[in-house]
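Review form for a predicted model. The reviewer records the input and the model, then writes brief findings.
Reviewer: anonymous (R2)
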Amino acid sequence: MTSSELWTRATADRYDAEESERSSTAFLGPTLAFLADLAGDGRALEFAIGTGRVGVPLRESGVPVAGIELSEHMAAVLRRKIDEETLPVTIGDMATTVVPGDFTLVYLVYNTISNLLTQDEQVECFRNAARHLTPGGRFVIELGVPPLRFLPPGQVAVPFDVSERHLGFDTFDLVEQILVSHHFTREGEGEGESDGEGDRYRRGSSRHRYAWPAELDLMARLAGLELERRVADWSGEPFTEDSAKHISVWRKPSL
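Model under review:
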């Protein structure tokens, strides 16, 4: 077991509704095209596959997909969508769990490598990806760039969403490279904490270890992988100093 926080049944049951925009065909189109192109005629393995937001439609597009997922509750939601024979999922952590077979693509989306809260575990995640890849195969990570330049002296929090139904902000431990994402989500009356005017809010938080692109490149080298390309989004826009996230592709050298 790694240091990743385990997602509960309640979190799993509401995950798809809260991520409905990111699950739409329009939103996922570039992601699926990017991953399918890298998988080619081979198999894809998704680390931390969750409820199958990406894995299920990628499988439905014709790419053979398998998954590893730490939370049995998240995997149970995925299983309502697709059967085990069509998309097999192994319960376990993404740093040490091994599944049968070789893959031309291993991928991690939506900041998920940050769920591993130590550098050692993140290095082992890279090694585990390399362990599963065929020669010439790729490891792909989608990860945000830490917004530390928005932290003036004395400030510890950076907002990432301020909307009618949700307030989200990150707080940072700059020594340990840990950020905590805080969420206040408005719900129906009778649920969560009241603001005194009838609305109810659910409060939640999760811990993550942030890493810079250069640190990930070193982790890849330790695992025997080479950086092939880095872009700002799934559509392939150039990665610049102003990019809020990156899609990075590392390649396992051919024999």
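Findings: The chain has a mean pLDDT of 92.
Further findings: The chain is about 25% helix and 30% strand.
Recommendation: see findings above.
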